[in-house]
Amino acid sequence: MAIKCGIVGLPNVGKSTLFNSFSSAKAEAANYPFCTIEPNVGIIPVPDPRLDKIAELVKPKQTIPTVVQIVDIAGLVAGASKGEGLGNKFLSNIRECEAILHVLRCFEDENITHVEGRVDPVRDKEIIDTELQLKDLELLERKLDRSKKMTKGGNKEALKQVEIVQKFVDHVSQGLNVRTLETTPEERAVVAELGLLTDKKVLYVCNVDEEGLPDGNAYVDQVRAAIAGEDAGLMVIAAGFEAEVQELEDPEEKAEFLASVGLEEPGLHVLIRKAYELLGLETYFTAGEKEVRAWTITRGTKAPQAAGVIHTDFERGFIRAEVMKYDDLLFYGSEGAVKEAGKLNVEGKEYVVQDGDIMHFRFNV
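Above: the chain sequence. Below: its structure as tokens.
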């Protein structure tokens, strides 16, 4: 499953610079290219050193990473919820994403005009939040009207639905995001088909200048305070600096350049890892002579459903899974040695796949 993340933000906050720096990213191996499938959509391989280590030991014909799809959603403006600035199209693009990468400008530069006149990342955040909330409110109020019409005749289920939808309407009407509302799974199920924008996981990407690396600046501190009660992530990145990093092809030169500002790895790696954490995602691997491959699953996935990520037949005809731990493969050096050491486990339908598991599925259809 390739997750889809949308980059949003006001115009001139560094979204496109960030996207373009990703698009020019030179992966450590030629097998892992960034691929732009549309002018504003790119496929980025998920950097995972474990995949390369497994490939070194197994020596497959090809190595295939799991990927993230990044969508550069053109700058939203005030009034987007009413269609301003092609707002409806952009809001529709966001709805198709699992996570939102909300870029906030946290640097001063008199050569780059701010659409609102001055740098204020918290205000910028609130502008985008408001547009997304207004769109959610529009959808919720429509559903509320439909639900009320169904209550005629004392339909108890419809009455309960009205109560639940009203709870969401009241919350969003206060200028609050849906993801901050305490709800039960049953309540969420009532509005699930709406694809509410403010219910999506958000990673706030604070775009700083080089002086703001690695930990941020006063603007970033303001953002941290503003999102303290929100179920969201935050990272600091310098889009301009990232673009320069990606121009370097020599690994040692790149490492030295990163170290000069206190970084150990490119911001792209951090961003993808944080997106995975936000969405509760994990990776398992399959390994054989033909290919070594990474697969993305949701944390807590059981073996048959993990097999289904490869092919629905694997899930439908699941018999068992043979599981090696990544650390065991590294320690013993081969699958055969892992078996001899008694470290290859055979698991059934109730096995919960762990991050880093190396799996071989037995199935019959």
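Confidence is low (pLDDT under 50) at residues 26-34.
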